[in-house]
Structures are given as C-alpha cells and as structure tokens.
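Budget justification, computational time. The allocation requested in the original proposal was used primarily to generate structure tokens for proteins on the priority list. As evidence of use, we reproduce two of the resulting records. The first is shown immediately below.
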Amino acid sequence: MTAARLLHLSDTHLLGGGALHQGLVDTTAVLRRLLASLAGIGPLDAVVVSGDVSDDGSPESYATARDLVGGFAAQRGAQVVWAVGNHDVRGPFARVLLDGADAGGPLDAVHDVGGLRVVVLDSSVPGRGYGELRPAQLARLREVLAAPAPRGSVVVVHHPPLPAPTVLHEALRLQEPDALLAAVAGTDVRAVLSGHYHHPYVATAGGLTLVVAPGVANRTDVLVPHGLERAVRGSGACLVEVGPDGVRATVLTVAAPGDGEELFVLDEETVARIAAEYGTAGGSA
C-alpha cells in the first residue's frame, strides 16, 4: 500500500478588497507564489488547510482561497480539506468553502481520502483566539473512530495539542489538549495536523505524529525574548505522507524577496492586553 500524500497548508490569512495583512503583506500574492513554487510536488491525495484561511472573514477572501487552493488541487486530482481557525468566521466560511453547510455550531467534518479517514475538528471559539473542543465534539470523534478505516485516520484541528512557542500563543492555545489525545488513544489515528503557531513544529505523543505547518502569511520568531511577539516575512507548507510504516512530514520553504524582514514586534504590555482580550484565564501571558 502506497503512502497517502497530503499537502498541509495553514494560516493563509487572506483578505478581501485588496487589503494587506497587518497593512504590510499581500497574502493573496504570497499564496499564489507558494502554490506556483510547489508545482513540481508530484501526485497528491489531498490538500489540507488547517485554519485561519481568512483574516477578515470576508466572502471574497474565502472565494480567493477556494479558487487558488481548489484550482491547485483539481490539477492534481486531489481533494481539499478545510478547517476553521480562530480568525475565520463560520458563516461565510461554510457558505463559500463548504457549499452552505450549517454554521450554527462547530464545523466538524469527515472525509474519505482514498481510504484514509480525515477528521476535521473546529476548535474555534467565536470572538476569541484560544481553541476549545466541546465534550460533544470529542464524543462524536470517539464514535467516528470506533471502527478503523482502511488506511487509518488523520485528525485536522487548527489549535495544536502542543505547548506554544511564545507567551502570546500560549495564552491562545488549545484548552485541555490531553482530552483530544485521550479521545484518539487506541484508535487508528496516525497523525494530528494543525496550524496557528506560524512556525513548523513536529512532535510525537502516544504513538501519534503531531504536525504544525508553517504559516503561509508570515513566520513567528520563536527566538524572540520571552514575553514579546515578533513576526517576519516567510512562507511555507508541509508535505505529510501517511504510509503503512509510519508518517513522514517534510517542511517546504519558499525563498522570496524580503524573507526574514521584520513585520511587527509586540511588547510585553501589548501581548498581555491581547492575551487578556482574546485568551483565557488559564493562559500564561
């Protein structure tokens, strides 16, 4: 059995009306360039976008994602799997990307990718930045995973079940990540694919491979002094191969003019304010 090949993208942060992300980055142009650079990637079974597709929640931004990512996938006969991130807005997300699916609650989904089961969990909390999975979502997850799939399963969730690389992201991380790991323990789940941190990150837990994709929009400086938040120009993706003998994640970076150029720095006071407004009381910021 050959490995399932998944192109894992995250945090495109697209905007409508030609607006720039943080007033500086044309994220539509960045996504176009990234996809063009991946033209030689070879056959794919799916393109997985693990959240923060949009930065402003506009229908136009989702249409851009649908057209660019969908076109890239269609050329390769690949499915597209969309997950919701904290910047996404469920209504327009569902109308444009999910053919008008009911957006009255979490936008969870299950996809069959050539025998590989891909389970999408919506970890967003409207109006906040941290992630949360409700008990009902985890109960449904356990039901879905009760019987194994022919090629195993992969879970896609925007907020990683992993420690965060910066103080701000720690305040905006997934709450009770162990509950997710417990729900998939002993099942056929091979990997969990996430985004949110804007920096590649691969770890293992309980036999699972946990993959955090680079951000398409920018890159988090994980070496910033403690308490600050800094982003620089940079973009990338992951190629995740799920085979009978294991999971392999290859980080794909795309060289572009201005790479490494500082986009913004948030001081400790600003980080604390954002953490208080969009995080949880349990955050460390």
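The second record produced under the same allocation is shown here.
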Amino acid sequence: MMTKIAVVGGGTMGVTFIRAVTNSGIVDLSNLAVCEIVPERREWLAAEFDGLCVTGDLAEAVDLCDAIYLSVKPQDLSTLARDSGAQSRLLISILAGSTISEVQASTGAERIIRAMPNTPAQIGKGFTAWTATDGVTAEERQLVSRLLDAMGEQLYVADESTIDKITAVSGSGPAYVFLIIEAMINAAVNIGLRPDDARRMVLQTVIGSSEFAQLSGEHLATLKDMVTSPGGTTAAGLQVLEQRAVRSALIDAVAAAHRRAEELGRQ
C-alpha cells in the first residue's frame, strides 16, 4: 500500500492534513513532501516540520511520491498540469467546487478522489465527504479512508453530486454555527454578562449539547423537550425563535449554499 504522499499547497488545509496523518501515525513525516510556491511559507514549513521535504518544484515533489493531496485554491488547479506526472498517481483533491471531470481534464489523472473536509478538521474534529473514480482500487480506497479519518469523521458517497449537498451542510455548516454562537454571546452581553464569561458559557453549552446529542442517540426534538418546561424560560425563548422563523432561515441557508455549490460546479 502506498505511503508516500506529495501535498501540493502548504496552506492551512495542507498543514492540517500533514499534522493529522503524522500525529496519527498513518504516514511518517519522511514519507511526505510538500510543494509550496511562496518562499516565506516554505521557510515556515521547514521550521515547523523537521524532516519534511519542502520544495517549490512541483515535479520534484510528485516524483518522490505515489499519491498527491491537492490543497491549492481552485483557480490554481492548472498548476498541476498534465506534464507534472500527476496522471500516473492517485490524486486526492479537496478543491472546493472543482468536479472530478475538471480535475481530470487539467491533470490527466484517472485515479481521483474528490474530498470535502471542513474547518474543524484543523483540530481533528472535522467531517469529510469523499467519492472516487472507478480506477481507484479497493486498497487505495481503504488508505484514503484512514487518511481522512485522521482529520475527524469521513463518509464515502458513490454519487459525486452528493458532495455538493454535503458541502452545503458540513462544509459551510461551521460558519452557520459560528454565527449562532456569536449571536448567543451578543445576547448574553446584552443582558449584562461579562464578554469573557459569555463566550466561555456559550461555547461550552454548544459543545456539551452536541456531545450529549451524539452520545444519547435520542431524537433532537426529544432532547429539546427535555430542556423545555411549559410556561418556563426555555419555552419563552423558543417561542421567539420560532416566531422569527430561525428554523426556516437555516433550511433556506443550506438550500442556497447547495444551489451555489451546483453553480460553481457548472462554471
């Protein structure tokens, strides 16, 4: 099974992948190479990861490895041209909005994984949906599953169009959650709580509620009812949220994100 991987793009998500797979012991740092075009960023990478092969030469990074983890910006896809050697490697692309056919046309690769990790992957708590072309072997799929597990949870989907749907939920989802957290903190400050205390209690409330929902296995409506007493404080707050159509707004937000993901895929 291949273990040598070239990370093309040493930005936040590239570094997230390097940290995840090395900290989990799946890939040794000596079996990784990273290609980064910004000199200052290369210097930082070399200092941050002792023993990591850091280069600005794409061909050099690709030649050293069996697989490529593509974490550049979508507009930079053309950097991985057909003459780079990518066509003979397993290619794992996390380019938002870039379809398998687009990656295939640009690189000539046949064995392609399209993956969509989200922001919490940076702390090993992410969710990554992925799909694969028919040319990807069972052994390679098993490897990819392990690599993505290192960043949190992963889900394989057979239909590539499902990636756009998941992007609208888990890919964009952290931003929705951050907005809700921000609003709750603002609300806490508005009623007289200190900002530091407000931030701490809201974050812990969200973390605790999420973990409780995950561990209990109960329906979310049941959990909501557990907190709500008739005529109580929670009921008063929920009534305002329902009156202001917060539930509908979130549903519409996910639908809008899904439509935009599909539009980007057609461009």
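A brief technical remark on that second record: The first helix runs from residue 12 to 23.
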